[in-house]
Amino acid sequence: MLVHPTADRRLAAGHWLLSTLPAPQRELARREWQSHEVAMLPLGGLFSAVRLPARLVAAVAERMEMAALDAFLAQALDGGPVICDPHFARYYALVPASMPRTWHQAADDWRTRDIDCLGRGTYLGVPRPDVVHSVHGRASYWAVPMDSPASLCSPLEVARLIAAGWRTLGTEPEE
């Protein structure tokens, strides 16, 4: 069995993430990662994102500490990559690019609860792959790091997390 060190997997994930941009813009995004630790990447090509309010995740996890929420998300989403924006108290689960189209009805229901499927035409601040811890003043970090290129969250697991959050908060969508 061939074992790849974490640094190699993160490097490969970084190259994959940057491939969402046309070649001339990739170097600019690399410089943004070096100076700001976050680069704006387009969604809807290789991956999309589901925006989750931290209060929903905290309700399901029955915890409030960020490290505990990160560990909970890693388990609940089977290691799928999740970005945390602590400033706005939001998480972004990275999902297949097709999710906003295939989950259109659910996405419409979610939007009323500060949950949104972000896809084509949207940009997301994506942290450099090695930014994996919350630090005061940091814009965003990987709550659950991307394990390898194209390794994304299962849309079904994300939907189950959202449904559990609604039940816990007492705000299930109406049928």
Beta fraction = 15-25%
Q: What's the overall geometry?
A: globular
The figure for the number of domains is: 1
Distance linking N and C termini: 49 Å
- Regarding quaternary structure, how should these chains be classified? single chain
State the main characteristics.
5-stranded antiparallel sheet, alpha+beta, globular, 7 helices, 175 residues
Task: Explain the overall architecture.
- The protein is α+β, with helices and mostly antiparallel strands and 175 residues long.
- The chain has one domain (6-169).
- Helix content is 42%, strand content 20%.
- The protein has helices at 6-18, 23-36, 54-61, 66-76, 99-102, 104-111, 155-169; strands at residues 38-42, 47-53, 82-85, 90-96, 116-118, 123-127, 141-144.
- The strands form two sheets. It has a five-stranded antiparallel β-sheet with strand order 5-2-4-3-7. Strands 1-6 form a two-stranded antiparallel ribbon.
- Strand 3 (82-85) and strand 4 form a beta hairpin.
- The protein is globular, with a radius of gyration of 16 Å.
Topology:
Blueprint lengths: L5 H13 L4 H14 L1 E5 L4 E7 H8 L4 H11 L5 E4 L4 E7 L2 H4 L1 H8 L4 E3 L4 E5 L13 E4 L10 H15 L6
Antiparallel strand pairs: 1-6, 2-4, 2-5, 3-4, 3-7
Helix pairs in contact: 3-7
